Every structure is written in structure tokens, then in C-alpha cells.
User: Which sequence fits this backbone?
């Protein structure tokens, strides 16, 4: 009986009744470290397209020519707020959360290159990739229609009935070879590595 | 009539029933919807109740970028929800297909092709607060004075 009275008394306290009807969790604020859509910092964009190159989401960012200057534009609904563009931009044009502070503090940056790979099972040795490659064309204007070349400086050439990749590092990542391959045998992959800047460079 | 409508408005503003459907996503957005239910965000304190029953739902949260198997089923679910109803697209997937919008994938976004979408919450995934705000701001627009608007 005593416990019953105790309970009733406890639940009749005005404080308890007030809380019962009005209690809410604290207003939800977005923390300052939240990585929101990248915003412009106002620094000048040089139009190097590093941000577009690194972006993993299709159609999320475009660097547009506005009057006389370049300006990146991020599209919500496509952007996944990964923040890679913020980190990749050498000029610090974009910012999001505390990414810039952290990369500045840790002196980290990205190094990237392109990796070419030919699946020998799919490749039919047509040479389309070697011929269509604009870099190849520039290096060796004499490049034969079959993809063979006398030059050792080309990115890739047909050698002994196979595609041989000689100078991967010259690839600009345009993916023309991928588009012109009838069998989707050649793939261009962008490789990215986080690197730590030396004291002197930072 | 208008007193009755006022009562309905008041009741409905504190009683929004939500069903969510995942039509082919990575599950990231589902987990954020789940986080809305947890004590940190506590969606029920706003009078929003999540039970996955289209028959008693007011708001349908659509997650994911629509795989072929979902095309007709999504329509079925939408038809089962009684009026007044509203669909909210959660995440990038129903808006653009997100990372699945590439050559060779089977998804066919946007979800607007299949059912009418009243609001979109972009993000991959969106924050629970963004989901909450979207539901809270879109629901009254649809339900307020619903019967009077019908006349
Ligand atoms: S945050 Fe990520 S997804 Fe968004 S634009 Fe930048 S790189 Fe692309
Ligand atoms: S925003 Fe930065 S990374 Fe992108 S094009 Fe401009 S300078 Fe280059
Ligand atoms: S275009 Fe494709 S199939 Fe032709 S040689 Fe190059 S990788 Fe092989
Ligand atoms: S929007 Fe992103 S997090 Fe949400 S389901 Fe699609 S891929 Fe996953």
C-alpha cells in the first residue's frame, strides 16, 4: 500500500507531469565538423579539373567557365559529400567541414596517375586503342593503322600480336582507347595515393 | 466544418505515419532512417510513427535507385496508400541514381518516373536531421485543410 501511494505521489508531481507532456531531445544542431556539400572559399580556380577527375559520383561536380574565370559547381542529388574534391584541389578553392584544416595540419595531399590494363582474353588485337590514343598520335604521326609503331616513346603499341603498354605514365586519362575498344578489353583506372609532404615542401 | 477541419489538422500534425521502401540501395540511407528512430533523434517525439504498412501510411519514404524488380511493385505500394499521401525521396539514389548511375548497371532512376515525389532529401546518405526536417515540412503542406481543398 505504501508503495502504491508512493507511486501515485511520484506521478502527480507537477514537474513530472510537465516533463511527461513537453520533454524533447535537445535541438539538433549540425556539428561544425560536418562535411557538407563543398562550398567555395573565394580563392581563384585555375581550371585544372583535379576535382572532377577525383570525384567518384557521376555528375556531381563540374568546373564551369563563368565569364573570364573558372568556377566549380557541386550538384546535390549527385554529390555524395565524400570531400575528395576538397582534398584534391591544389588551390584550396573548395572547403567542407574541417578537411582543409586537417590536410593543412597533417601536410597530406594526393598523388594520382593512370593505370592501363588490357584483358588478354577479351582483346582481339585490332589496334584501335593504340591508333585512337591522342597522345600516341602526337608522339608518332606514322603510327600504323594496325597499331604497330617504330617508336619506343608511344604509350602502347601492338607488338608480336599483343598490346604492349610501354609508357603508362604518359596517359592523360582521356579514355579514348576505352571508348574505341570494340570488346571493352582495355580499361583506364585512375590510381590515387595519399602522400605526406616533406617539411620543406609544406 | 471548419472546426472539424481544425481538429483534423491538429491531430494530423501530431500523427504522421511513415512507411519506407528500399527499391535497391546500398542500405546507407536505410540505416539513417533507422537512426531517426533511435533515442538520439527520436522521431516519435514529433508525432511521426514508422511502421512499414502502406495501408496506414501517410508518408512513403523511397530509398534506392529502382531495380527492375521494383518497377511494378513500387507502383503497387503507392496505390495501396490511402489519400492524402505523399512520397519523399531519401538520398541521392532516387534522385539521380547516385553511384549506380553508370553504364552497365541495372537500375533505372529517377524514381519520379514511377510515382509522384513531393520532396527530395539529397545526400549519400542524408543526415537524420535532414530526413526529419523534410518529413516535418512536407507533411503539413499535404494534410493541412485536405478536405477543404477537395471541395
Ligand atoms: S564531395 Fe565527393 S562526390 Fe561531392 S563533388 Fe566532391 S568529390 Fe564529388
Ligand atoms: S576547383 Fe581546384 S581542382 Fe577544381 S579545377 Fe579549380 S583549381 Fe582545379
Ligand atoms: S582496342 Fe581493345 S580489342 Fe583492340 S587491341 Fe585495343 S584492347 Fe585489344
Ligand atoms: S544515396 Fe548513397 S547511401 Fe543512400 S542508398 Fe544510395 S548509395 Fe546508399
Assistant:
Amino acid at each position: 500500500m505504501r508503495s502504491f501511494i508512493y507511486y501515485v505521489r511520484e506521478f502527480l508531481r507537477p514537474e513530472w507531469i510537465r516533463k511527461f507532456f513537453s520533454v524533447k531531445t535537445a535541438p539538433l544542431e549540425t556539428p561544425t565538423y560536418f562535411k557538407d556539400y563543398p562550398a567555395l572559399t573565394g580563392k581563384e580556380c585555375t581550371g585544372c579539373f583535379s576535382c572532377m577527375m577525383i570525384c567518384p559520383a557521376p555528375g556531381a561536380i563540374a568546373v564551369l567557365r563563368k565569364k573570364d574565370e573558372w568556377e566549380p559547381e557541386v550538384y546535390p542529388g549527385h554529390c555524395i559529400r565524400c570531400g575528395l574534391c576538397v582534398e584534391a584541389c591544389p588551390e584550396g578553392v573548395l572547403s567542407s567541414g574541417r578537411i582543409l584544416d586537417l590536410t593543412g595540419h597533417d601536410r597530406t595531399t594526393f598523388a594520382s596517375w593512370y593505370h592501363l590494363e588490357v584483358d588478354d582474353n577479351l582483346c582481339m588485337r585490332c589496334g584501335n586503342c593504340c591508333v585512337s590514343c591522342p597522345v600516341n598520335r602526337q608522339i608518332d604521326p606514322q603510327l600504323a593503322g594496325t597499331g604497330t609503331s617504330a617508336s619506343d616513346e608511344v604509350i602502347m603499341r601492338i607488338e608480336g600480336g599483343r598490346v604492349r603498354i610501354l609508357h603508362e605514365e604518359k596517359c592523360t586519362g582521356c579514355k579514348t582507347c576505352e571508348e574505341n575498344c570494340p570488346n571493352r578489353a582495355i580499361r583506364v583506372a585512375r590510381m590515387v595515393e595519399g602522400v605526406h609532404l616533406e617539411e620543406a615542401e609544406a | 466544418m471548419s472546426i472539424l477541419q481544425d481538429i483534423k489538422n491538429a491531430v494530423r500534425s501530431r500523427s504522421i505515419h511513415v512507411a519506407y521502401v528500399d527499391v535497391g540501395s546500398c542500405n546507407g540511407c536505410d540505416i539513417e532512417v533507422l537512426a531517426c528512430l533511435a533515442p538520439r533523434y527520436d522521431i516519435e517525439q514529433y508525432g511521426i510513427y514508422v511502421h512499414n504498412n502502406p495501408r496506414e501510411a501517410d508518408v512513403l519514404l523511397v530509398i534506392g535507385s529502382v531495380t527492375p524488380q521494383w518497377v511494378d511493385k513500387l507502383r503497387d505500394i503507392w496505390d495501396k496508400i490511402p489519400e492524402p499521401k505523399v512520397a519523399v525521396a531519401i538520398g541521392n539514389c532516387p534522385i539521380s541514381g547516385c553511384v549506380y548511375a553508370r553504364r552497365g548497371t541495372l537500375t533505372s532512376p529517377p524514381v519520379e518516373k514511377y510515382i509522384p515525389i513531393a520532396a527530395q532529401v539529397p545526400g549519400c546518405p542524408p543526415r537524420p536531421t535532414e530526413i526529419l526536417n523534410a518529413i516535418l515540412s512536407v507533411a503539413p503542406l499535404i494534410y493541412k485543410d485536405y478536405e477543404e481543398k477537395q471541395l
